[in-house]
């Protein structure tokens, strides 16, 4: 097993290209799945005859396991071997995708999505970790850039492919396309990717992972099924499990979430900013596609294509805003960006039947995308600038988990806060509560800018590399190059 401290692969070598190919395919299926499932929700709802509640579980079952197990997945790779855990994640994701494709009911689809989240938690941290652990330091930036550029294609074309498959055949094909991609990635990884690990043998934080998973599942149930008699019981159980998680992380010998990180005012503040902004992002993305297809008559392909400008703007300009934050610091971009993004969501809250794409949809999508573009790269800088270089990896993982958790909470709670009926047909639910829910999402997003204005003071230097998944808050530690101190010349 290769030690992670001695990477030697070169970018121009055949071995290096195989590693990039495996990681692009592996991470690509997770990014592809993230962009197409929302587009498929109306078709899933129509097929199963489910209300909005069923669609909330289709989204959140995946987010519960993914967000709660991300940190554990990264730790497993460090201990058991990054390639091994990456391959296990791919196999689990593929099996779960097959189960999603053949699901006979909304409940079984939700269960398969939860298994997908487990696979994603093993797979997602592994792709960049493999690159960082295998490529020579002189070629690592080029390798990451190639991975980012190639994998971003999946996020961009996902809505086109998914929409076309849904319109021409069935939403089930959206999940089936993951299987051949995962099979190729597994073969490349087993044959051409060297094994690496951090060499640590410390125990895994299994109690912490179990408690946070229980907490997220119970709290999601309480929010989504808020009219159920069991909702108060679930809320109490979720709160107790969350408190237990905090206690385990505080007193445990090997916590997956070192609570000492939150002693930094900036680290706590930037994660609060992340939570607020990604609540808005997760809730808006969930609702916009439903509004376009159910209320405004868009096909799945048209609805997916309607949001492509968002991805294009982020891909084209995120590196430039990252460079700007290196010069002026993260505070101003993190104050302005969420407010602009919130304004975009507010514009989109006015969408209704009869609105044209050019005047009704596009202005809000462009404004929303511009605000997120201003926000994401400086957010990476602020999070990483609040901790030491040694803590960069776990800080990045925590921030990613916070972003996923925020999306989970938004999808679970926004409909209830907006007064959307749980048992109503989807069309009636969206018509009654869409505008209110989007306004709440806009306020949450803009609040992130206020938090950042108060808490963000200093920053780190970040490479001009765009993360291919725009739903990530903080780029992986491998994307970050800390500013090296300048040593003054000796006195003459």
Describe the secondary structure blueprint for this structure.
Blueprint: E1 2-3, H1 14-48, H2 52-80, H3 82-101, H4 106-134, H5 137-168, H6 172-176, H7 178-192, E2 196-197, H8 206-224, H9 231-251, H10 265-295, H11 300-306, H12 308-328, H13 331-348, H14 357-385, H15 392-417, H16 426-455
Question: What's the total number of strands?
Answer: 2
What is the N-to-C order of secondary-structure elements (H for helix, E for strand)?
EHHHHHHHEHHHHHHHHH
- Main-sheet strand order equals 1-2
Distance between the termini: 49 Å
Instruction: Report the C-alpha radius of gyration, rounded.
Output: 21 Å
Uncertain regions spanning at least 5 consecutive residues = 462-466, 477-492
What characterizes the major β-sheet? 2 strands, parallel
Average per-residue pLDDT, rounded, comes to 83
Number of alpha- plus pi-helical segments? 16
Helix content, binned percent:
over 70%
Give the amount of beta strand, in percent. under 5%
Content-based structural category: mainly alpha
Apparent shape = globular
């Amino acid at each position: 097993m290769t030690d992670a401290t001695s990477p030697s692969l070169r970018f121009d070598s055949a071995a290096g290209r195989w590693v990039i190919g495996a990681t692009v395919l592996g991470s690509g299926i997770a990014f592809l799945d993230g962009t197409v499932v929302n587009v498929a929700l109306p078709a899933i709802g129509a097929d199963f005859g489910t209300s909005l509640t069923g669609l909330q579980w289709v989204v959140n079952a995946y987010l519960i396991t993914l967000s709660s197990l991300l940190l554990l997945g990264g730790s497993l790779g460090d201990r058991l071997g990054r390639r091994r855990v990456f391959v296990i994640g791919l196999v689990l994701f593929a099996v779960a995708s097959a189960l999603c494709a053949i699901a006979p009911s909304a409940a079984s689809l939700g269960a398969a999505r939860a298994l997908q989240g487990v696979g994603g938690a093993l797979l997602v941290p592994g792709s960049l970790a493999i690159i960082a652990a295998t490529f020579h330091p002189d070629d690592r930036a080029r390798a990451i850039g190639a991975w980012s550029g190639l994998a971003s294609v999946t996020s961009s074309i996902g809505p086109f492919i998914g929409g076309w498959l849904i319109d021409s055949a069935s939403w089930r094909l959206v999940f089936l396309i993951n299987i051949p991609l995962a099979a190729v990635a597994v073969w490349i990884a087993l044959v051409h990717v060297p094994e690496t690990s951090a060499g640590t043998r410390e125990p895994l934080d299994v109690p912490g992972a179990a408690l946070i998973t229980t907490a997220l599942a119970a709290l999601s149930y309480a929010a989504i099924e808020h009219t159920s008699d069991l909702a108060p019981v679930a809320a109490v159980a979720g709160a107790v499990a969350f408190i237990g998680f905090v206690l385990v992380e505080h007193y445990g010998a090997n916590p997956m979430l070192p609570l000492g990180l939150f002693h930094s005012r900036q680290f706590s503040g930037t994660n609060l900013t992340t939570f607020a902004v990604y609540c808005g992002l997760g809730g808006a993305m969930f609702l916009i596609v439903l509004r376009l297809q159910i209320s405004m008559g868009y096909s799945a392909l048209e609805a997916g294509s309607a949001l492509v400008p968002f991805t294009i703007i982020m891909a084209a300009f995120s590196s430039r805003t990252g460079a700007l934050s290196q010069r002026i610091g993260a505070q101003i971009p993190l104050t302005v960006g969420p407010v602009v993004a919130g304004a975009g969501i507010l514009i989109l809250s006015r969408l209704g039947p009869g609105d044209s794409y050019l005047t009704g949809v596009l202005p809000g999508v462009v404004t929303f995308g511009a605000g997120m573009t201003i926000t994401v790269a400086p957010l990476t800088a602020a999070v990483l600038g609040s901790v030491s270089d040694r803590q960069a990896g776990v800080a990045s993982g925590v921030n990613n988990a916070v972003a996923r958790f925020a999306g989970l909470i938004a999808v679970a709670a926004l409909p209830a806060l907006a007064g959307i009926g749980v048992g109503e047909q989807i069309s009636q639910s969206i018509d009654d509560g869409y505008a209110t829910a989007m306004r709440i999402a806009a306020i949450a997003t803009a609040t992130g800018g206020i938090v950042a204005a108060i808490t963000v003071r200093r920053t780190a230097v970040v490479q001009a590399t765009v993360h291919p998944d725009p739903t990530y808050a903080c780029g992986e530690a491998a994307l970050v190059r800390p500013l090296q101190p300048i040593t003054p010349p000796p006195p003459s």
